[in-house]
Amino acid sequence: MIEFRAVTKRFADDTVAVEDFSFVLPSHKTTVLVGSSGCGKTTLLRMINRMIEPTSGQVLIDDVDVATQDKVELRRSIGYVLQSSGLLPHRKVLDNVATVPVLKGVPKAEARERGLELLDKVGLDRALAGRYPRQLSGGQQQRVGVARALASDPNILLMDEPFGAVDPIVRADLQVELNRLQRELGKTIIFVTHDIEEAFTLADQVIIFKKGGVIAQAGTPAEILADPADDFVASFIGADKGGRDLFLQQREGDRGITLVVDGGGRPVGVLEPGEAPHQPTDLR
Ligand SMILES: Nc1ncnc2c1ncn2[C@@H]1O[C@H](COP(=O)(O)OP(=O)(O)OP(=O)(O)O)[C@@H](O)[C@H]1O
C-alpha cells in the first residue's frame, strides 16, 4: 500500500505542482493517474521513489516513510518505466534487462538467465537479446523497458506514459500484454497517462486530476463511467459529447450486482451492490 499524506510539492520557481494531496493506493492493484498536462501526475509518481522530494507531507510504502529509506536502495527496489524506455543505448537488450540485478549482486549468469525468462514474459523473442535498443521497434523497446523494470522482482511498478510514443495498434497490444502480465504477477502498479481510454483499459482504480494534483474523481472505471462526479469529469471522459452510450443492466440471478454496458451491449464494468447511481438507465 502506498499512502500520500498531505503531500505538497513546490518547486524552486514557486510552481506548486501538488498541494495537500492525500490518498491511499492499494497493493496488488493497478491505479491509473490521468489528467491533462501539468496537473502533477509525474510529480506524484516520482515522489514514490524519491526522484522528487515533497516540500511537506509524507509518502509511505507499507507504513514506512520513504524519506527514512536509502534513496539508491529504494529506487532499485521499485520498477520504473518511462515513455522513452530509458534503455542504455550502448548495451544489448539482455544486458539492459540484467543491469539492476547485477548491481544488486546477483551473479551475472543467473541475472542473464532470468533476463531471458523476462523477455519471454513480456512477449519478446529471445533472438532479440543480443540486439542494441536502436535495432528494435518502439513497441519492442517498451517491452524491454517493462522487462528491465521487472528484473529485480519489485513489488511496485511505476509507469510514466510508457506507451505514449508508440502507434495506436502497438499501444493496444502493449495494453493487452500489461493486463495479462498483471493478472499473473499482481504488482502494485501506478500508471500515468493522458489517455482516458488507456486508463479505463488498465485500471482497477482511476484517479482523474485537475491542476495542482486536485482529485476530480477517483473510482473504478465502471463507477466513473456510470456516474461522473461533475461536468469536468463528464467532459474529460467524453460523456458530455454523447461519445459514450452507457447503460446499467441488472444481472439476472445476481441480486445487487449491476453491469455497466456500452451502446453495443458490451460490458465495461461492474458496480458492486450499493454503488449504482440514481439514474436508472441512460447514463449519457
Ligand atoms: N523541476 C520543475 N521546476 C518547476 N516546475 C516544475 C518542475 N517539474 C514540474 N514542474 C511543474 O509542475 C507542474 C506539474 O508537473 P508534472 O510534470 O507533475 O505534470 P504532469 O501532470 O505529469 O504533466 P504531463 O502530463 O505534461 O507530463 C507543471 O506546472 C510543471 O510545469
UniProtKB/TrEMBL annotation:
This is Osmoprotectant transport system ATP-binding protein. Pfam families: ABC_tran (PF00005). Residues 2-237 form the ABC transporter domain. Keywords: ATP-binding, Nucleotide-binding, Transport. It comes from the Bacteria. GO terms for molecular function: ATP binding. InterPro entries: AAA+_ATPase, ABC_transporter-like_ATP-bd, ABC_transporter-like_CS, P-loop_NTPase. Belongs to the ABC transporter superfamily.
